Structure formats: C-alpha cells, structure tokens
Amino acid sequence: MWNGIIEKYKDFYDIKDGEAVVTLNEGNTPLIPAENISNILGDIKLYLKYEGLNTTGSFKDRGMTMAVSKAVEAGSRAIICASTGNTSAAAAAYAAKAGIKCFVLIPNNKIALGKLAQAILYGAEIIPVDGNFDDALRIVREIAEEGKVTLVNSVNPYRLLGQRSGAYEVCDQLEGKVDYLSIPVGNAGNISAYWAGFKDYYAAKKIDKLPVMLGFQAEGAAPIVENRVFDEPETIATAIRIGNPASWDKAVAARDESKGLIDKVTDDEILQAQKLLASKEGVFVEPASAASLAGVIKLSKKGYFEKDKNVVCVLTGNGLKDPSVVSPEKELKVYSVKIEDIKAIIDKTLGSDQDG
Amino acid sequence: MWNGIIEKYKDFYDIKDGEAVVTLNEGNTPLIPAENISNILGDIKLYLKYEGLNTTGSFKDRGMTMAVSKAVEAGSRAIICASTGNTSAAAAAYAAKAGIKCFVLIPNNKIALGKLAQAILYGAEIIPVDGNFDDALRIVREIAEEGKVTLVNSVNPYRLLGQRSGAYEVCDQLEGKVDYLSIPVGNAGNISAYWAGFKDYYAAKKIDKLPVMLGFQAEGAAPIVENRVFDEPETIATAIRIGNPASWDKAVAARDESKGLIDKVTDDEILQAQKLLASKEGVFVEPASAASLAGVIKLSKKGYFEKDKNVVCVLTGNGLKDPSVVSPEKELKVYSVKIEDIKAIIDKTLGSDQDG
C-alpha cells in the first residue's frame, strides 16, 4: 500500500522513527506515454508526469507533506503562506489533516475559483491583501520570523526537499532513462527541486546519467528568461504568474549544470498545448502545466531534440482547478428527443464514408 | 510502472495479446486512512478510496478503459453515451486517446460546469436533449442498436467488468481485510461491479471473506430504497440524481447476497459529510461521493457497526468537478498590506493562549 512520499523515499528523507508524518498519500502519480503527440511531433518519445493527480490536485502536495510534518514535529499550531492558488489548497488540506490552523494570504485579483474553493472547504482562514503575490509573500515572511506560525511557502526548505520526490518517481517509472525533463517555471522551486532530486539519484547510483532540464515561463511573466524582475507579471497561466521568483538562483544553476535552457512561451502557445493534451491524450491540465508541453513543441519545431529521446513533461496541476478557460458557456443547441435528429448529427459528424 | 487496470489485473480480464488497450493509466488510486473521522465516530477504522484521482477525476475511468478498448478492437469509429457528467468526461477522454469520435447526450439542465468543460476540451460532440437522464439513455440505446456507434453507458457490460478493479485494489491495499464497503448508488453499476469484483477475488482465493455492501442513495433520488421509479429525481448530488437505475436488480442482489443494506441520506447529510472530509481529512470530493460517508455516519450513530472493523468509503469523484457547492463567492474583506492588521487576525484566530 502506498503511504505517501516520505515513507516511500525514506532513504532520502531524514525522518526518524516516531517523528510526525502528515500525509495525504501524495505522489505515485502516473507517467502517461503520449503516443499521439509523439507521432505528431515525430522526433521524440513524450511522457506526461500528471501531477494533477496528487490529492489536492497539484505537485504542491509533495512539498507540503514534508513542510507540515516538520511544523507539527516542531510544535507549531499554525502554518501560513502567500498563494495564488495551488499552494493554498495544499497547505489548507495538510493543516486540516494535522489538526492545525492555516492562514492563506492571497493577492486580491484573478484567483482561480476552483483553487480558492478548496482552501475554504479545507477550513483555512483566507486573508485577501491589497497587493500582488510578491507583497503577500513579503508579509508572510515577516510574520513567520516571529516564530508563532510556520511559513510553508517554497522558501521553507522542506518544501523543495519533498518536491524532489517527483524526480525520484520519474526515474523509477522510466528505469532511469530520462533524457529531457520539461517543467513550467513560476516561483522556480519545482525546477530546482527536480534537479536536486536527479542529483540525489545520481549520487546514490540509482541512475547513470542526468537529464537535461528545460524550464518554461510565460511570456508576460518571464523574469529568468529576460533576467529582470517583472513588476506587473501577466499571463493566463495563473500558477506561474510571478515576477520575482524565490528560487531564481537555484533555477539558473539547474539550467546551467544540466546544459539545459529556460525559455518563454506565449499564452496562445500555452492554450494550444492545453487543448492538444486534452484532445489527443485525454489529459486535462491547468494552463500553467501546459507551458511544459508548449515549450517542447517550440523546441521540436526548431529541431532541438536528438531523435527518439525520452522527454518528460511535468504537468503540474489538474485542469479542473481552472475550468474557466474552456468557456463551456457557449450556446449549445438543445435538440428535441426525436431519434432522427440525433442520428442526423451523428451521420454528419462521421462523414459520408459511413454506409449504414 | 503502472500502466492501467487492464495490464495490472490481466488475470481477470480476457484481453488477448495484440488486442487494443486504450488506457489513461487509470486506477492505482490511494486508500487514505481517515484517522480524524475515525476518532470522531469512535467505533470503526475508516478508509477513503479516493477515486477522484483517476485521470479524468472519477471512478468511471476504470470501466471506460475496458469499454473503449473493446470498441476499438471491434472496429468502431465512434462511441456514444448519455451522461450527467462523469461518464461524458471519461468517454470523451478515452475516445480522444483512441482517436475516435465521442457523442455525448446530456439532459438540458443542471450539469456541473467542471464536468462539461472536460468533455468539450477532450473534443466530444455534446448534444443537449430536451428531457431528463432517462430520456437521453433511451435514445442512445436505440441509436447504438443500429451498430454504427458503440454505447458506453454502464449497460455496456465491459464498463462493469473494468469497474471491478476498484474492488481488487481495495483488497490488495488492505490485504483482504475489508469488513464493510460503503458506496454511493446512482445508476447502481458501481455497487454491482464492486460486489462482482469481491466475488472474483474470493473465488480466486485472494481473500478469505467477503465484505458487507452498504449502498447509499440521495433522499430525493432513492428508487431502490423505496422500491419505486422516481420520475423527477432531485438532489444536489448530481452524479447520483437518477430515478430508474440501469443496474437495479444487480444492486439488490449485491445487497442481499452480502447481507448489507441500501439506505438513503439527505442532501444536508451529504453536504455535512463533504465538509467533514475536507476539513478533517484534507480530501475534497464531489457531493455524490460524500453520500458513502454520510451513510456510514448515519449507521454509526445507530450503533450498526461491530467495534474496530475496517470500513472503506468509495469516494467516486473529485470535488473540483463541482466546486459551485462551496460558494467561495462570499464577501471576503480585503486587508491593506500593513503587517499589524494581519497579525491581529492571526492572534484573534489562535486565541489568547498564544503568548508571543
């Protein structure tokens, strides 16, 4: 029975017998072979690490199990974070499981409905502040310094330790044969954590080569790509709409040490990739997640990849977090319950080569 | 590497070498020990089989991998279903993966936004009909009889075969020690499939006792409980708002053979159970899923359970499918970015026993 990442990867996590472990059985997410998109691209073997199937719907659960376990072990009665969505959901859920309080500071604009609904139902105290994400992050850091409440944003070092498990799993699932790892870059913690995880596995001789790291930011929130802070980051991909990433230096190091790259993709490319994932592979992700595939498509068109290499796209969050981008409100014609009407639609759609 | 339920449980599925297998790596969902709710109830050991972590967000994926694989093997170019939501999402996703068309007939009322968004993005043709679920089901059955398109509603026998894997997994995860299995009942396919799955495992000597089956319908859609068709079924739990279940007889047999029961719970009990799952266990489910826990709570209060037995609640779908019930639109006060304001909120929430 799978009991979460801390138990599974205990050789890599310094948790002693009797220490608190707060888990929602996170991790163990599928690695889905994307045969249809691979055929379209023609050069690579694409795999989708579908992190939307963690318990709260995003990769954040991997870090939160570590951060909240350590907070409980240290005697904390509350955790706090600034969040545009996924972090708040994960923090609130793990606090609920642990029986401690959770405070979530949110920027007062453009929060995806599904994400806020989660934190509220999990029982967190939501505090909207009149500012952007970076303002909220500054406040929670200052408050946490007093020691009353534990900060669980990704500057909490346990978060990134937990997130390394994503890399361990990908290596286990592909038996070490990961050639490229493509990942969305927002606050830049996840690309840093994956790279550290791959290095852990390499040092432990569980893999005999390290993958090339490919990070992708949204064009309107591309501080690392353009090497400047974005004061007003803007993108439809809310989970990576961050102008001044906390793990900036680590992400640059991951890029350089792996001989990879961090590039940007447009909102349009992101939405195209999101649609391709759903309509060709049956996988529904939130827009930010699709940045990893959008980037791979961009590189594939340029002839970047060697033939037949294994490319893993990390799909960070579930599409159900943010269904608003799909616009299902469009007018659908309502048909009477006459069979003939329905048959006519089917025949028209399947085309004239269908003979009774 | 987990490659879906057909590969994992090939001893139980009659798929020959070379036959088509259309999979989204469904199954392998966590069984989460619900220590907090167990402590509140005081009598049982509660486990949550969180089926919301299947690839399209519900248990329907287990049956759809079988149904679509067999449709493709038979040369079908399209599948069709009537659906209030979860079935349409699963059908559309597996059709996308298989590269065939999917037609979804929906009743023209009260469809959860998240569910329809999925089917649309996966590329299905959505056909709203002027009638209820039972009208839609009657039409698709009639159309499928002509043989052009394959019906993938639960009357498709492969659906229930696939869904048996939920029972196999629960047995594997609890090493056979499942005393009670609690499950929401709508179209009644899933309770029938679980019971058949347990009997498969018993016949194969993988378990040495069968669990007691506990099914729960919503009060406003309780045809099996009241032994009458509901012409106008009504409940907030849209996924089980069904007045004339397709697998009625099988569900009654599962109940009677296992010496279990099928009872009803109110919408209020369902919403209370949904909130308890989120706020005590960090697990967010759609309302229909919470019917299984609502029923267990009802029975626990009556002293139904023997002490310390393992009770598994099947949580059929992800809460993100239907976040509207959470009402996060309530007015949240926006705070200025002054640290003092935020500290005051935290101190007030944590109470006076927190001494700086």
TrEMBL record, chains A, B:
<dbReference type="InterPro" id="IPR050147">
    <property type="entry name" value="Ser/Thr_Dehydratase"/>
</dbReference>
<dbReference type="InterPro" id="IPR026260">
    <property type="entry name" value="Thr_Synthase_bac/arc"/>
</dbReference>
<dbReference type="InterPro" id="IPR004450">
    <property type="entry name" value="Thr_synthase-like"/>
</dbReference>
<dbReference type="InterPro" id="IPR036052">
    <property type="entry name" value="TrpB-like_PALP_sf"/>
</dbReference>
<keyword id="KW-0791">Threonine biosynthesis</keyword>
<protein>
    <recommendedName>
        <fullName>Threonine synthase</fullName>
        <ecNumber>4.2.3.1</ecNumber>
    </recommendedName>
</protein>
<dbReference type="GO" id="GO:0004794">
    <property type="term" value="F:threonine deaminase activity"/>
</dbReference>
<dbReference type="GO" id="GO:0006565">
    <property type="term" value="P:L-serine catabolic process"/>
</dbReference>
<comment type="similarity">
    <text>Belongs to the threonine synthase family.</text>
</comment>
<keyword id="KW-0028">Amino-acid biosynthesis</keyword>
<feature type="binding site">
    <location>
        <position position="86"/>
    </location>
    <ligand>
        <name>pyridoxal 5'-phosphate</name>
    </ligand>
</feature>
<dbReference type="Pfam" id="PF00291">
    <property type="entry name" value="PALP"/>
</dbReference>
<dbReference type="GO" id="GO:0009088">
    <property type="term" value="P:threonine biosynthetic process"/>
</dbReference>
<dbReference type="InterPro" id="IPR001926">
    <property type="entry name" value="TrpB-like_PALP"/>
</dbReference>
<keyword id="KW-0456">Lyase</keyword>
<feature type="binding site">
    <location>
        <position position="316"/>
    </location>
    <ligand>
        <name>pyridoxal 5'-phosphate</name>
    </ligand>
</feature>
<feature type="modified residue" description="N6-(pyridoxal phosphate)lysine">
    <location>
        <position position="60"/>
    </location>
</feature>
<feature type="binding site">
    <location>
        <begin position="186"/>
        <end position="190"/>
    </location>
    <ligand>
        <name>pyridoxal 5'-phosphate</name>
    </ligand>
</feature>
<comment type="pathway">
    <text>Amino-acid biosynthesis; L-threonine biosynthesis; L-threonine from L-aspartate: step 5/5.</text>
</comment>
<dbReference type="GO" id="GO:0030170">
    <property type="term" value="F:pyridoxal phosphate binding"/>
</dbReference>
<dbReference type="InterPro" id="IPR000634">
    <property type="entry name" value="Ser/Thr_deHydtase_PyrdxlP-BS"/>
</dbReference>
<comment type="function">
    <text>Catalyzes the gamma-elimination of phosphate from L-phosphohomoserine and the beta-addition of water to produce L-threonine.</text>
</comment>
<dbReference type="GO" id="GO:0004795">
    <property type="term" value="F:threonine synthase activity"/>
</dbReference>
<dbReference type="GO" id="GO:0009097">
    <property type="term" value="P:isoleucine biosynthetic process"/>
</dbReference>
<feature type="domain" description="Tryptophan synthase beta chain-like PALP">
    <location>
        <begin position="22"/>
        <end position="317"/>
    </location>
</feature>
<keyword id="KW-0663">Pyridoxal phosphate</keyword>
<dbReference type="GO" id="GO:0003941">
    <property type="term" value="F:L-serine ammonia-lyase activity"/>
</dbReference>
<dbReference type="GO" id="GO:0006567">
    <property type="term" value="P:L-threonine catabolic process"/>
</dbReference>
